[in-house]
Specification:
binds glycinamide ribonucleotide, 2 domains, three-stranded antiparallel β-sheet, eight-stranded mixed β-sheet, Rossmann fold, 6 helices, 219 residues, 26% strand
Length: 219
Amino acid sequence: MTKKPINVVVVISGSGSNLQALIDQATAININITGVISNIASAYGLTRATNANIPTEVVDHTQFADRDTFDTALMATIDRYQPDLVILAGFMRILTPAFTKYYTGRMLNIHPSLLPKYRGLHTHRRALEAGDKEHGATVHFVTEELDGGPNVIQAIVPVVKMDTEASLMEKVQQKEHKIYPQAVAWFAEGKLKMEDNKAFLMGELLPPTGKRLSDDDNE
Ligand code: GAR
């Protein structure tokens, strides 16, 4: 590979299994994870980062008076790692418009539903309660609208009778570990862009669902 890897910062709150997928594929997808930041000091993702020799920081939201001051501190911390792309991977805080505006077009999120279905929390429970036959995950650009920025890629999982919240989460996360590195790889290659609140892949407007990971794309 001749192109220089892009610098990314991964922002987490928890286990960091998506972070792990990115760590494992970093060379293949041409990224350099310059820092991992968590708002929760006990997040296991911080251990994953340390094990991979990636610098970590904690910006504890409980130490700030309000969202604005927390987001300002988080931005300053992120920027010290000079990212070309900010990757939210299980980061469980709502962001202020100032924050989302500042990183427009250079911040991605992964959400455990087939957006625009089930923005917000408890997505697996809501899919089960609705009797959905399909559920999944979406990678999207982050905009001011919560879980509402343009979609980049989705993966679908079938919902079967036996499924529980836990089994559904497990199936969805397995797909997440494929679609997030894929989306980041496109960004690193310069193929994925956001303009005018729309996502483009190789210059082509993506459909509202984003790309779909099909079963044949599963390598
Ligand atoms: C992932 O399933 C991700 O989709 C979800 O949190 C999990 C984090 O897992 N994100 C959200 O719910 C964002 N609203 P991980 O820490 O093992 O990557």
